[in-house]
Design brief:
It is built from 12 helices and 17 strands. The protein is α+β, with helices and mostly antiparallel strands. Strands 1, 2, 3, 4, 5, 6, 15, 16 and 17 form a 9-stranded mixed beta sheet that branches. Strands 7, 9, 10, 12, 13 and 14 form a 6-stranded antiparallel beta sheet that branches. It has a two-stranded antiparallel ribbon with strand order 8-11. β1 and β2 form a beta hairpin. α1 runs antiparallel to α3, α8 runs antiparallel to α9 and α10 crosses α12. The mean pLDDT is 96.
Amino acid sequence: MPLDPQRFLQDLHQLRSFGAAGVGKGVVRQAFSEADIAARKWLAERMDAAGLEPHFDPLGNLFGLTQGRSLLVGSHSDSQPEGGWLDGALGVIAGLEVARAAREDGGPQISCVSFQDEEGRFGVLTGSDIWTGKLALEQADAFTDTGGRTLAEMRGQMADLAGGFLPYDRFSGFLEMHIEQGPYLEETGLTLGVVTDIVGIRDMRIRFSGRQNHAGTTPMHLRRDAFQALAAFNTALNTRFADVVTPATVWTIGHVALHPNAASVVPGRVEFSMQWRDADPARLARMQAIIAETAAQIAAEYGVEVELGEVLGIEPAAMDPGFQAALAAGAEGLAAGKWQKMPSGALHDAANLATVMPAGMLFVPSIGGISHAFDEDTAEEDLVLGLRVLDQAARQLAT
């Protein structure tokens, strides 16, 4: 078989060199950064060398196309501000290798893809959001990152590479291989996970605006302290969620911008991210209502104003039963008794793709359950096993 695990690993390590940082195998390759754009150009060269037609769309999604209708295999190659070498990148290089091997031996029609901004510099799964028609490019162009730069401005850096948007009915389905990003597979001694469904997510920004003032002369009872409002909001929210959520529900305040962020000044403004995830759409909606109610109450108690930003997100998504079966057959054939069906608590492009075509996902273990960190890693034998299972499933589904 032309599948070449060594070539796959070499390409995976080469991709890591774009934005390599920190200890271990860390990567800093945010969407539209210099490292990200350089990596995408390199990926396009590798696709071309494999006999696949590289195609950038207006957002920077990069496809490696074979002739005619085909199965699509891939993931994303952008990273978190401090990320690891496998998150997304594994699925992109696995897709490239599977598509390349199929072409080399005259196998079934398989294309590959690296979606742009999966990690959410400008929203949530921005590249596949727009490509699948869930989000209009004109609307997304106004989105800003934490530094105030717009998506329109940043994607303009790739305008000379961009062609049109590809119709998604050009593809018969989508497969994505990914690290688990959690501890379950490692803790249970399993080597593979066949994903059954992906949780839904909601993401918004909230701003409390109070009164900036002198930290030494402003009495506590007269303060309109934006940070104190945030602290009270966080405590109240945890209490109010208690009777609504399940052990699998998660919520996070992950980015906080305090103004003026000075030791001797009562903070006058704070803007922060609020994200919550669950597999039940009704619970996600109830949590959104609680967030809004709690923010309004805290604002009144602390004498500040509150602004709630637009709620972005992805609905919970089930993976296609036929695609699950193909991955399960490959897993059982190559790792009998060492795999299991499981849900994904992390969000992936497959959630968007599942709304327009059959989709499936395969997990390999994360050492220590670590991801979104410089020390994210997976044993190379597990990476290669995942590649072989992915290849078998892709050939079956593309035939």
